[in-house]
Write a sequence for this structure.
């Protein structure tokens, strides 16, 4: 992994794609001027709630749909209107879509046969791919005779066998139970690493996206809100939706009272202001929303200077952490997760008056 | 006490009085005449209403009757050609009407294709009679083709029904998956759609064959002289006086129908 992802070739380029579904009674904008660059050998995730357009985007890349406007390119080649059977791109479908009248082996060899590869090459590749997904002993089974997890592996093998330039995965793990799903997450990462194929993975599960992706795009209502590595997205969300959808966040409303090259001063209450490092956002308005992760704040005595004042409303013990909900004097609720370190346990009773201490480096000003 | 007892019993319309006995009555009405027909086909006497003893003689009589052989052969020819043609047309129609996105007028098309099921057979028969009369006058051709064409026409909706049902139950994503795996539309049809549709097609074929084999009304109107099929021959025989030979032929026809319809149901549930 010596080459940084940003220096690799662009495998898939979505260039201002818009997709509008027209019916007799309505028109729905599934994608609204989406641009994305997915790089070679990248595990790229499209994350968003259901109906956000992420599956439509995947279908545009596969060729099952064509954009109303915009272009799709695969290694610089314009594939916008090519039919799916001419694109070197394969899909793992949500419910696998295995051919029920064929055996596991016949399913896996289907793509290679359609590409008219020589018989011995087909047999060899199918053996390799079945080995890769650890299904080598079940090749002669009917697809209805194997478990859900095994069907998932066959679907993967079938899509990998033709050695596509890009593999698309449409919510492919969502039909599996929790344990199997975790195994498959590790398995998918391993397969991506071993095959060197670019994976584009669609999911609505933020945890799955964070653990598996090299980079990810957060999508809502047909728009790409933010693109970045999981830690960039988690630590520096630029929009309220991103901060809310991925992990937990507190939101504080404040006024900008000072702004220069080094810092932005945000006043949350007459008694508390925080100097945030400048440069992250150019502010056009005085009123801003700041996101703070619950684990990035601490509790301290109410007398400490510069803290947000409030009353402990509830506390729940979680073993590694204790979760406190504080009702601030402004009326907003603020959640703080305190790590339970042996010998350093902090304990605040319900109803006690405390101060919430913020770390300027871990606060993020959001776009309006 | 009684109220408590009723409360304990699960509610079901089955417990309304008379429903079960009505169901039994339906079966009796349906099958008693058929049972009588089959039983009397084994009668050794010449009277169809008086039991004189068990014998297979009427089956032998029917089997050796050259006229019966001729009309049976004609029936099978007409039914085979008509059902195969109708099934091919119905398969293409079903693919054309269901394997597309929802479109305006889809329900109208279904209704139009299925309309012959509702139109009285005599109306279809008269229509075909007049239509063919025009062609006969123009061409002078009087062959069996008219009968085959007529049977093909009324068999299409019967073949179409199970094929369309099968298609609608099929997951369209399988065809999408095939195209994703480099299959052209023609290869997708050959390798995925048709193999999965096969039970529906066979079921449609069976149904069309049975319907054609049993038809009287339209055949009676469309056939030219000397083109009797088995059912119209039997109708003619009945006019002259009934012998258990007709029972025997009917029983044999019934056997074939039951066999084909059973295959139809087995294929449909597969």
């Amino acid at each position: 992994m010596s080459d940084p992802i940003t220096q690799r070739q662009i495998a898939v380029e979505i260039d201002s794609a818009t997709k509008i579904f027209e019916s007799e009674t309505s028109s729905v904008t599934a994608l609204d001027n989406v641009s994305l660059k997915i790089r070679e050998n990248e595990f790229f995730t499209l994350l968003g709630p259901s109906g956000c357009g992420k599956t439509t985007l995947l279908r545009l890349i596969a060729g099952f749909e064509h954009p109303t406007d915009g272009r799709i390119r695969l290694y610089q080649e314009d594939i916008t209107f090519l039919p799916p059977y001419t694109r070197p791109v394969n899909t793992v479908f949500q419910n696998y879509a295995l051919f029920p009248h064929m055996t596991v082996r016949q399913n896996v060899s289907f793509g290679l046969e359609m590409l008219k590869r020589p018989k011995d090459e087909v047999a060899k590749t199918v053996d390799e791919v079945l080995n890769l997904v650890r299904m080598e002993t079940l090749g002669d089974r009917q697809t209805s005779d194997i478990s859900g997890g095994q069907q998932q592996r066959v679907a993967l093998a079938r899509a990998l066998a033709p050695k596509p330039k890009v593999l698309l995965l449409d919510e492919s793990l969502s039909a599996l139970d929790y344990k199997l799903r975790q195994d498959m997450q590790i398995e998918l990462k391993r397969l991506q690493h071993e095959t060197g194929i670019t994976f584009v993975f669609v999911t609505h599960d933020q945890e799955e996206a964070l653990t598996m992706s090299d980079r990810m795009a957060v999508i809502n209502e047909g728009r790409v809100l933010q693109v970045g590595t999981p830690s960039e997205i988690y630590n520096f969300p630029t929009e309220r939706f991103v901060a809310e959808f991925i992990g937990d966040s507190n939101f504080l409303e404040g006024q900008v009272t000072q702004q220069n090259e080094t810092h932005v001063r945000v006043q949350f209450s007459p008694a508390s202001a925080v100097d945030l490092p400048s440069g992250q956002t150019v502010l056009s308005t005085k009123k801003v929303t700041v996101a703070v992760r619950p684990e990035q704040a601490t509790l301290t005595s109410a007398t400490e200077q510069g803290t947000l004042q409030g009353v402990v409303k509830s506390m729940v013990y979680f073993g590694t952490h204790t979760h406190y909900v504080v009702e601030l004097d402004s009326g907003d609720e603020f959640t703080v997760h305190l790590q339970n370190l042996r010998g350093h346990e902090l304990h605040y009773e319900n109803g006690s008056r405390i101060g919430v201490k913020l770390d300027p480096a871990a606060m993020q000003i959001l776009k309006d | 006490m009684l109220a408590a007892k009723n409360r304990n019993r699960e509610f079901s319309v089955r417990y309304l009085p008379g429903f079960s006995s009505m169901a039994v009555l339906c079966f009796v009405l349906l099958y008693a005449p058929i049972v009588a027909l089959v039983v009397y086909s084994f009668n050794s006497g010449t009277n169809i209403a008086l039991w004189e003893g068990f014998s297979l003689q009427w089956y032998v009589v029917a089997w050796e009757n050259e006229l019966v052989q001729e009309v049976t052969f004609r029936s099978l020819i007409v039914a085979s050609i008509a059902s195969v043609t109708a099934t091919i047309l119905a398969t293409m129609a079903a693919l054309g009407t269901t394997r597309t996105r929802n479109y305006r007028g889809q329900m109208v098309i279904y209704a139009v294709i299925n309309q012959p099921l509702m139109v009285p057979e005599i109306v279809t028969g008269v229509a075909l009679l007049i239509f063919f009369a025009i062609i006969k006058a123009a061409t002078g051709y009087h062959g069996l083709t008219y009968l085959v064409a007529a049977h093909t026409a009324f068999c299409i909706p019967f073949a179409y029904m199970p094929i369309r049902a099968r298609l609608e139950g099929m997951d369209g994503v399988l065809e999408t998956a095939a195209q994703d795996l480099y299959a052209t539309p023609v290869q997708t049809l050959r390798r995925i759609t048709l193999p999965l549709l096969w039970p529906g097609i066979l079921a449609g074929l069976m149904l069309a064959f049975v319907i054609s084999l049993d038809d009287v009304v339209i055949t009676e109107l469309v056939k030219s002289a000397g083109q009797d099929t088995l059912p119209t021959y039997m109708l003619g025989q009945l006019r002259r006086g009934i012998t258990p030979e007709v029972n025997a032929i009917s029983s044999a026809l019934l056997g074939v129908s039951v066999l084909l319809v059973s295959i139809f149901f087995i294929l449909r549930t597969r």
Chain A has two domains: 5-241, 249-365. The radius of gyration of chain A is 25 Å. The first strand of chain A starts at residue 10 and ends at 22. Helices of chain A lie at 54-62, 104-114, 119-132, 148-160, 178-195, 206-212, 230-235, 240-245.
